[in-house]
Design a protein that fits this description.
The structure is a single chain. A hairpin with a 2-residue loop joins strand 1 and strand 2. Helices cover about 25% and strands about 10% of the residues. It has a domain of about 90 residues: Protein-Tyrosine Phosphatase, Chain A, CATH 3.90.190.10. The chain is globular, with a radius of gyration of 17 Å. The protein has about 140 residues and is α+β, with helices and mostly antiparallel strands. The termini are far apart. Strands 1-2 form a two-stranded antiparallel sheet. It has a two-stranded parallel sheet with strand order 3-4.
Amino acid sequence: MSWDSPCSRDLLRPKIRSASSRMPGSQSSARTPSLEELRRLLCMGTHRTGHVDEVWPNLYVGDLYVARDKVQLSQMGISHVVNAAAGRFRIDTGPKFYKDLPVDYYGVEAEDDPNFDLSIYFYPVARYIRAALNSPR
């Protein structure tokens, strides 16, 4: 298996916008946390918040329960969903499931198998997440 070296543009930190930075003329104190700040937060041993956790500012990781809980997604202001277990016989959400919400969907039909090569999806999903973090929603 050959690995391409990542392009520097693929490793750029996303520009994260807070709700106040979207308003014209507002000053925002939101900034991308440093690696040391993220490491310190990780090591603090914070407790799980249920079926979803904020792993980066405005970036959440959740399970099938939160992915299918439209009320919670709406209350949290979730605008984009990546499903790494997409498909009819897995976590079947998809664009039709979210049609009544302002949610953009990206599905990865990954197999729950240690031999499945999930790495082929890393860059496309990373680009999607970066675009989502940079979107005004």
